[in-house]
Dissimilatory sulfite reductase, alpha and beta subunits (Solibacillus silvestris), 209 residues
Amino acid sequence: MPNKTFAKLKATDDYVALIVRPGLINKHLTSDQLIVLANLEKFGAVKYSAGHSFIVTVHCSHIEQAMEKLTEVNLYVASQTPSALFKCCDFCDGDLLDGLPLAKDLLEQVEQMPLKNRVRIGFNACTQACYNAVQDDLALIFHNGKVDIYGGAIPMGRRASSGHLLLKKVPENQVIDLVKNILGKYNASSIDKFSAFVHKNKTYFDQLQ
C-alpha cells in the first residue's frame, strides 16, 4: 500500500490536490508527460482516480512550479475551486468526432463555472456511454446532432444509482444555454447535493422539455 497519499501528506503539512488529465478527450500519455508526473511524485503523490484523472498532490509552496511543468507538456489542470468539471469519453480514440465541437464549446463556456460545490459532468460522443457518464452529476449523451441529458446520479454508497433521463433529444445549439440554466438554478438553490437538487426539482426539469 502507498505510504504517500493526499490524506497522509495533508495531515503533515500544507498540501493541495490537482486534477490532471492528458486532454479533453485524449486518454493517452506521452513519455514527456509520464516523466513530469514521475518527478512530481518524488515530492508529493500521484494517484489515478475513478474520474479518469490523475490526482497530483503537491505542496502549496510549489503549486506554480508544478502547474508550469504540467502545462509545458500539454497536461490539462482543472480549477481547484468548486466548479463544473467535465469528463469526456475518448470519442472512440478519435473515430467519432461529430460531438467534438460541442465538447470544446462546453469546456470553454461551462467548465470551471464557479459553483457552491463541484458538479461533475460526463460527455459521451455516442450512445455507448462509455466512461460511466450516467454515474456523474450530469451526463450529456450525443447522438446525431442531439443530446440526451441525464442527472441525479448517486455514484457511491448503499443508495448508489445511475442518473435519470431528464431531457431527450436536445438540439446541439441549445445544449450550452440549457446546461448553464441548470447549473445556475442549482447554484441559487438551498440544496447542496446535486442529486438531491435533481430529485426535488422534477417540475423544473419537466418545464425545460
Remarks:
- Strands lie at 15-21, 45-48, 54-59, 76-77, 84-88, 119-124, 138-143, 146-151, 164-171.
